[in-house]
Amino acid sequence: MTEKVVIDAQVLFYFHYDYQKIPSILQQLKKEVINGEVIVIVPTIAIAELFWKMRKAGKINAFKEALNRWESSENIIIDDFDLEIIKLMLNNAKSHELHDEIIAMTCKKHTTDIIYSTDKNFKEIFKLQLKSWQ
Fold first, then answer.
1. 35-58: b or e for each residue (b if 16 or more CB lie within 10 Å)?
2. pTM tops 0.90
3. Does the residue 124 lie in any domain?
4. Kind and range of the H or E element at 13?
């Protein structure tokens, strides 16, 4: 079975805005996705965060191209914020930021505990396996 992982907006930012400085752990992830070894789940809230940053930077066309690539990739799942995630949120006693909780619950929805991020709260609050480059 192919491993599933969730990524946060920071990973998307590296892949599509600051590609020259992409950390080696993310370069490896990209290779594994291309080779079909890993399925990446991208929460729509993370896409919205990237869009917001790229619009401010005047990079709308680059964002549109990235979105088209994600939609056509066999190894990327774009996951919506939906009622199932809200129901999973009911089991949390605490959270620190809404968008991070949605991303963490996306992991739970897809039965993975692997998240690529530098935010230690994913590990400390949500008990996820953090794959960080810091």
1. eeebbbbbbebbbebbbebbeeee
2. yes
3. no
4. helix 9-16
56-115 confidence digits (pLDDT tens): 989 899 899 989 999 999 999 999 999 999 999 999 888 889 999 999 999 999 999 999
- CATH number of the domain that 39 lies in? 3.40.50.1010
Q: Is residue 60 part of a domain?
A: yes
Q: Which residues form the domain of 26?
A: 3-116
Count of domains observed in the chain: 1
Per residue in 20-48, pLDDT tens? 678 999 999 999 999 999 999 999 999 99
